[in-house]
Amino acid sequence: MAFVAPFKVMVDATISFDLSIDNSDLETFVIDRSSVDAALGTTDGRINSAADFKAVVDYVVTVGEGLDVRTQGNMITFKAEQDMFPGYGTYAVPFYISQFRPDPPFTLRFDLSEIDVTSDEFTIDDYIEGVEFMLQQSIDSGAMLGAVQQRIELQTDFSHRMMDEVESGVSRLVDADMEEASTRLQAFQTQKQLALQSLQIANSQPQNILSLFN
After folding, report:
1. Same domain, yes or no, for 68 and 122?
2. What pLDDT digit, counting tens, does each position of 7-27 carry?
3. Are residues 19 and 99 located together in one domain of the fold?
4. pLDDT band at 208 (very low <50, low <70, confident <90, very high)
5. What residues have CB less than 8 Å from 101, skipping those under 6 apart?
6. Is residue 46 classed exposed, middle or buried when 0-12, 13-18 and 19+ CB atoms within 10 A define those classes?
7. InterPro entries given for it (predicted)?
């Protein structure tokens, strides 16, 4: 494996790979920003050389796994530690290591503030690729925010409609109570009028009887 150029593992990015030695089950190892800084004693997540990458892999793959990582210039080789598996003698130990998988697929090797076209650390193509990646990230983030805003607006509209329905329901209940009260008042007034008429009729009866004797 060739180490092509320095790169930076961003805070939200990871690099993973699978490893199997001596026909063991595949085990996945993950390199993230914290493991890079811990392995190299740095704080910027930068891997500047093949030796740095070896140090990070050695840090992530715990002692006893049997992985032997070696570098020569920009080349990195991986193999099983033969001494840990004496049963194979001089024969190679069954060994498998997958490709290294960045997540997200493209990992920025610089921040926007680090762009310097006068430096030869990165090429113009590297900067263009990085800026395009940042732009796409911004577009994706904007789309996500737009979707969230739309959901908030829908929820707000639903809440307003619900409040209108509640107010309408309360108004209908109040109107119904007023109609019932009005009906009861009319019934009471009718009863009162009937009572007065009955009283008037009762009071007039003795006078009618007395008029018979006059």
Report:
1. no
2. 888 777 889 999 998 888 888
3. yes
4. low
5. 15, 16, 17
6. middle
7. Flagellin, Flagellin_C
